[in-house]
Write a structure and sequence with these properties.
The chain is α+β, with helices and mostly antiparallel strands. The chain is about 25% helix and about 30% strand. The protein is built from eight helices and 19 strands. Strands 14-15-16-17-18-19 form a six-stranded mixed sheet, with helices on both faces. α6 links the parallel β16 and β17. α1 packs across α5. The structure holds zinc ion (3 copies). This is Thaumarchaeal output domain-containing protein.
Length: about 325
């Protein structure tokens, strides 16, 4: 399904307004695509759902970029790796030399042994036995400057540069980021859709309608909700209104959408199917919802599907058919 909004997403890439859709992380720690947000209607779902749907149809290429980690405390991204003391969580730990007295096992920083100056004899600070370089093992250990504990392996932590919270890596939320760019298939499809839309818009315009493409209609009665349609055509003089959507394939969802918008705005609902021919079942549903189904023939002319009850009649000129579709005249009866 490609809604008005999704077509506009493709337009934005196609006309070069943006090169591709790049992710950001919102204040809530969610992946967002700011370039898409003003275009999407409620029924399109989230940006990611809309973009994934277009990628699923091969219109967009979804490219992995990187992963980010979200602070469990303040939801900021950009956590930094840092090591910390496993005893007190202080991050001020250093790697330093330790001496171990082999006989008693006492271990301490080298300065506690005071070895290396030229005094004759040295004692182990613990067992007080004589020591020299032959019975001392030198090793590298971590020392915590906060609590003074020493250890072999520090803890792995992620440090939030925004709120300074220190979290275990598993507690941070991992977000995988993708970019979306237009594919050749998407470009071609978009061109065809826009072409068909303009064809239909021109048809209305030539008949004196005021035509708005990608209209967002607002109903006074239900507040802020916007209803998007590919074409909104009005003739104030004749008090005629048309709402039309163009889809490659038509299903009952699309029929219901345009039918609902038609009812809300007292407009004749039309649907133009570009790719697939319409099954009797779909035509039946369209009939039930009072939606007129259109298609484009080989010569590029817009035609109307006859009602399911009628036998399809290829005769009759397009203008008559469209007149009928928009309710000017009737072609009923032979
Ligand atoms: Zn934070
Ligand atoms: Zn000792
Ligand atoms: Zn410590």
């Amino acid at each position: 399904m490609v809604s008005v909004s999704k077509l506009q997403l493709l337009s934005k890439l196609s006309d070069g307004t943006v090169e591709d859709f790049k992710p950001t992380v919102s204040d809530e720690g969610e992946v967002a695509y700011p370039e898409t947000e003003d275009l999407l209607a409620h029924q399109d779902g989230t940006s990611i759902e809309a973009l994934d749907a277009l990628a699923g149809r091969g219109f967009l290429h979804k490219e992995y970029t990187t992963k980010v980690y979200i602070c469990p405390s303040c939801q900021a991204d950009g956590l930094q790796y840092i090591t910390a003391c496993p005893f007190c969580e202080d991050t001020h730990t250093i790697r330093t030399s330790f001496f171990e007295h082999e006989q008693c096992g006492f271990t301490a920083q080298s300065e506690d042994f005071e070895i290396g100056d030229h005094t004759e004899t040295q004692q182990c600070p613990d067992c007080e036995k004589e020591i020299d370089s032959s019975n001392i093992t030198i090793m590298q250990k971590q020392l915590c400057k906060g609590c003074g504990e020493s250890f072999d392996h520090p803890s792995h932590r992620l440090w939030c540069l925004d709120c300074f919270y220190l979290s275990e890596p598993e507690k941070a939320t991992e977000q995988t980021l993708y970019e979306y760019e237009l594919t050749e298939k998407g470009e071609n499809w978009h061109e065809a859709q826009v072409g068909t839309r303009e064809l239909l818009a021109d048809e209305f315009a030539s008949r004196g309608f005021d035509v708005t493409l990608d209209a967002a209609l607002q109903n006074d009665e239900d507040g802020d909700e916007l209803y998007k349609v590919h074409i909104h055509a009005t003739d104030e003089l004749l008090n005629q209104r048309i709402v039309a959507d163009i889809h490659s394939a038509v299903d009952s969802e699309k029929i219901k959408h345009i039918s609902t918008v038609g009812k809300l705005f007292h407009a004749q609902p039309l649907l133009l199917a570009t790719d697939e021919s319409i099954s009797d079942d779909v035509l039946q549903i369209a009939n039930q919802h009072g939606v007129t189904m259109l298609w484009v023939d080989q010569s590029g002319s817009i035609r109307r599907y006859e009602s399911i009850d009628d036998e399809y009649r290829p005769a009759g000129n397009i203008i008559d058919r469209l007149s009928s579709a928009v309710g000017f005249t009737s072609t009923k009866g032979d």
